[in-house]
Amino acid sequence: MVIAQERFRDEELAHPREVFLQKGFDVVVAAGEKKEAHGTYGAKVQPDITIDDAAKQKYDAIVVVGGNGSTEYLWGNQTLLNMVVAHHATGKPLGAICIAPVVLARAGLLKGVEATMFKSPDTVAEFNKYGVKTSEKDVVTSGVIVTANGPAAARKFGLALSDLI
């Protein structure tokens, strides 16, 4: 699970992670640095690994967590963009929630693909720019890619991803 160093959305990390742990999966949390990361509503998380180090590993799934910090820390992170492209090439599940699906769009993985996101002027513009078929659903599974529109869908998002793992 990849989070922004600051202002990741607490429940978009917590709820899917709970689902994954309940299903018996190991969960690794990556951020830009290994120092304590801070959620929008006070969550404090000690990342297990940096995004740079995570990019050198193989995973059964990669999940990009949303929150306002995504625009600053994740959308333009070239290592993360390369990592999701390489992971997608393996045919393994990939997920993004809230405004984080923009990472997948910028990586070229959502062109012509049905996906959802938290609607804001910025996310709508990014989806349009990268040719994403925007859905109004709260969770969308398109092949091995799962997207969700925000915190209210976080648990359902985690379940949809866990079904693919």
The largest sheet is: 4 strands, mixed
Number of strands: 11
Instruction: Please give the CATH architecture.
Output: 3-Layer(aba) Sandwich
Question: Which whole number gives the mean pLDDT?
Answer: 98
Unreliable stretches (pLDDT < 50, length at least 5) are none
Percent helix, as a range, is 25-40%
Amino- and carboxy-terminal Cα gap: 14 Å
Please give the radius of gyration in angstroms. Answer: 14 Å
CATH homologous superfamily caption: Class I glutamine amidotransferase (GATase) domain
| Structural class estimated from helices and strands | alpha/beta
Q: How is the CATH topology named?
A: Rossmann fold
State which percent range the strand residues make up.
15-25%
User: Total number of helical segments?
Assistant: 7
What does this structure look like?
- By secondary structure, the protein is an alpha/beta fold.
- It has a single domain, classed as Class I glutamine amidotransferase (GATase) domain (Rossmann fold), CATH 3.40.50.880.
- 36% of the residues lie in helices and 19% in strands.
- The chain has seven helices and eleven strands.
- The strands form four sheets. A four-stranded mixed sheet has the order 6-7-11-10.
- β8, α6 and β9 form a beta-alpha-beta unit.
- α1 packs across α7.
- The longest helix is centred in the N-terminal third of the chain and has 13 residues.
- It starts with 5 loop residues before the first strand and ends with a helix.
- The model has no long low-confidence stretch (mean pLDDT 98).
Helix-strand blueprint:
Elements: E1 6-8, H1 10-22, E2 30-31, E3 37-39, E4 44-45, E5 49-50, H2 51-54, E6 62-64, H3 69-73, H4 78-89, E7 94-97, H5 101-106, E8 114-115, H6 121-129, E9 133-134, E10 139-142, E11 145-148, H7 154-164
Parallel strand pairs: 1-3, 2-5, 6-7, 7-11, 8-9
Antiparallel strand pairs: 3-4, 10-11
Helix pairs in contact: 1-7
